Amino acid sequence: MITRTSDRGRRLAVHILLIAGAVLMVTPFVWMLSTSLKSFADSMKVPPTLLPSEWHFENYAKVLTTIDFGTYYLNTILVTLGRTAGQLLLCSLAAYSFACLKFPGKNVIFLALLAVLMVPSQVVMIPSFVIMRQLNWLDTFYVLIIPGIFSAFGTFLLRQFFMTLPKDLEEAAKIDGCSYFRIYWNIYLPLSKSALVSLAIFTILAAWNDLLWPLIMTSSEDMRVLSIGISSFQGQHSTDYPLLMAGAVMATLPIIILFIFLQRYFIEGIAMNGIKG
């Protein structure tokens, strides 16, 4: 009886902690949604109130008319799809090479690749700008997509997963006469769905929320992305919080829906990565 009581107490404590954590995670989204439906005066009340005194659903329509939201949205989708497709292909190819192939200096090259993770992106921003200008890529989709189609993190993530797959499959495929690329394409990729989905989610989040790179590398309104468009509601002396939050809700909603549908693969991939390597 004492053991059962202690087990119930531990389970209760765990559930209380999980509920508290869930509330902490959900509260910012609830506050964002509430503020998006307030008037400007209502959003500036002290002390602040959770529910608006009057519901202003027209804030969402104002966002669409105040900025070129449709163009920003389309640009963000194109950039996100381009970066995600590129990383899934290139990172998986590199990860397969590091996990399964033997070539001189493999470990040294992989360590050098991992060292890139320790370099903040802001440090190389000026050299990157100079290179993009010399390539005449500034203010084009090239500058928004191509530099982001490969990452050291994605290569490391997929390499760790590939190393957990049975080597017997690769050896059997070699006996049947499969080339390295066919082993990668027909065996490793189909077995790595959860890891690929995990990388896709990380890449989508990074591309969808990217602000600094598009802000520096683009100048025309036709090439702006959502993060820059939404930030335009934040002025030097005042910020239109209801419109800012309405734009944030519309920008966040696709990511939330995507995660809901892919969370099973995402959690599975994170749980299986790093087991071996």
TrEMBL record:
Per UniProt, subcellular location reads as: Cell membrane
Q: One matching Pfam family, short form?
A: BPD_transp_1
Q: What parts of the sequence cross the membrane?
A: 12-34, 72-96, 108-129, 141-162, 183-208, 241-262
Report the family membership: Belongs to the binding-protein-dependent transport system permease family.
Annotated ranges, domain ABC transmembrane type-1? 73-262
Q: Sorted alphabetically, which keywords does the UniProt record give?
A: Cell membrane, Membrane, Sugar transport, Transmembrane, Transmembrane helix, Transport
Looking up PROSITE patterns in the UniProt record yields:
ABC_TM1 (PS50928)
Q: Mainly resides where?
A: membrane
Q: Which InterPro entries match?
A: MetI-like, MetI-like_sf
Bilayer topology term: Multi-pass membrane protein
The UniProt entry, under Gene3D superfamilies, shows: MetI-like
The protein depicted here goes by the name Multiple sugar transport system permease protein
What superkingdom heads the lineage? Bacteria
